[in-house]
Automatic annotation (TrEMBL):
Listed Pfam families: GGDEF
The protein, known as: diguanylate cyclase
EC class: transferase
PANTHER family: DIGUANYLATE CYCLASE DGCM-RELATED, REGULATORY COMPONENTS OF SENSORY TRANSDUCTION SYSTEM
GO cellular component, one term: plasma membrane
CDD domains linked to this entry: GGDEF
Catalytically driven reaction(s): 2 GTP = 3',3'-c-di-GMP + 2 diphosphate
Keywords: Membrane, Transmembrane, Transmembrane helix
InterPro entries: Diguanylate_Cyclase (IPR050469), GGDEF_dom (IPR000160), Nucleotide_cyclase (IPR029787), Rev_trsase/Diguanyl_cyclase (IPR043128)
Length: 399
């Protein structure tokens, strides 16, 4: 009996640790409700260890045995609900409640059946198998496919299989003639030991997917310009460079650089709050006008960039003119009634093999020409006939 009770105590402590860990995750993650349900799941399931420890010493073993069954199952139902929220595959809570109540009723119905038989063991373990398989289906049905998600999926599948294995282990090892005999049976040692390993593995996997989400969100925030909502220079560059992969017969795409005209005058005349509103409005114009596959970023100050994949120079020029006209028509709060903010644009079609930095330099020259020629214009850069490979040394004076 002492070994099984010790393992029950270990499982209780482990569950409390995971409860605390998910509460910490809830404070940091955007999936706060999911983490709170997972914390609640471990907390409720941990009560089973308390109830099972009491069973051998109480005059009401049925009450505490059923309570142990119900607490574990309720904890698993809460975990299923939390995983559903996290993976955007929500559970119907009425269905979960109905499943829980039906399972507890089943446990009550089989309580007096002979223990250690295949019939009792199968009916007792069936609800646990179902809820774990149900949880595994959540991960399978979601669109998330990172390594952490796969690990969690297979651990949930393994856990559901573990409850099928317990059916045969209960018969082969013996689970005691009564509920009070359980903690002193060989099956209790096997069940609690394997259960502890699966609790730790699955709990760590669940924590892993939620911690990964926090890390991914932090990385994404580091690439977003908070004022405009567009990518910052780093985020823009990291997303555009992989899109330089050529499609056969087509140029990689076209780059548009844009700069708000006389933006310093806006800040000086109307204040930085109005200037910020101008930045936000121009970012909205870019997103509204650019094609779906395009990438937009704020490079700094009042300078913006848009990459149009698999788009030629003439198509990009039309898009830039649309952006220019849309910005010119904006009525922005904080400006005088008749005041309008305009923007200038430089457009450069990217040559095959041309690095991003070189294309940006050509687009910047076209943007400078638009500024010099009166602002509120679109100017296009010439496509270079030969692109120098920056990885090959070029020697001055060598023919």
């Amino acid at each position: 009996m002492g070994g099984a009770i010790s393992l029950l105590a270990v499982n209780f402590i482990i569950a409390q640790i995971f409860t605390a860990a998910f509460l910490v995750i809830a404070a940091k993650s955007r999936s706060r409700r999911a983490a709170l349900y997972c914390a609640g799941g471990f907390a409720v399931a941990s009560l089973a260890a308390v109830f099972e420890t009491i069973v051998p010493f109480t005059s009401f073993p049925r009450l505490f045995a059923i309570s142990a069954f119900a607490s574990v199952l309720a904890g698993f139902c809460l975990l299923r609900f939390g995983l559903g929220l996290f993976y955007r595959v929500p559970a119907n809570w009425q269905m979960l409640v109905a499943f829980f109540l039906a399972s507890v009723a089943l446990d009550l119905a089989i309580y007096d059946l002979p223990r250690g038989t295949l019939q009792h063991a199968a009916l007792y373990q069936l609800p646990f198998f179902v809820i774990q398989a149900w949880s595994a289906s959540v991960v399978m049905r979601s669109e998330r496919r990172s390594a952490a998600d796969w690990i969690l999926l297979w651990l949930l599948v393994l856990t559901s299989g573990y409850y099928l294995l317990k059916v045969y282990a209960a018969v082969a090892a013996g689970s005691g003639a009564t509920a009070q005999d359980y903690v002193s049976s060989p099956f209790a040692l096997i069940s609690q030991a394997l259960g502890a390993m699966l609790i730790v593995s699955t709990g760590l996997a669940m924590l892993g997917v939620m911690v990964k989400e926090i890390v991914d969100d932090a990385h994404a925030r580091s690439e977003i310009d908070l004022l405009s909502g567009l990518y910052n220079r780093r985020g823009f560059t990291e997303r555009v460079i992989p899109m330089f992969q050529l499609r056969e017969g087509r140029l990689p795409g076209t780059l548009i650089l844009a700069d708000l005209d006389r933006f310093k005058l806006v800040n000086d005349s109307y204040g930085h709050h109005t200037g910020d509103e101008v930045i936000r409005r121009f970012a909205r114009v870019l997103k509204d006008v650019m094609p779906n596959r395009a990438v937009a970023g704020r490079l700094g100050g009042e300078e913006f960039a848009v990459f149009l994949p698999s788009t030629d120079l003439e198509e990009a020029r039309v898009v830039a003119h649309g952006m220019r006209a849309a910005m010119m028509s904006q009525r922005i709060d904080g400006l005088a009634e008749q005041a309008r903010v305009t923007a200038s644009f430089g457009v450069a079609a990217i040559a095959k093999g041309e690095p991003l930095e070189q294309a940006m330099q050509r687009a910047d020259k076209a943007l400078y020409a638009a500024k010099e020629n009166g602002r509120n214009r679109v100017e296009c850069a010439e496509v270079p006939q030969n692109v120098v490979n920056p990885t090959v040394p070029q020697w001055i004076g060598r023919p």
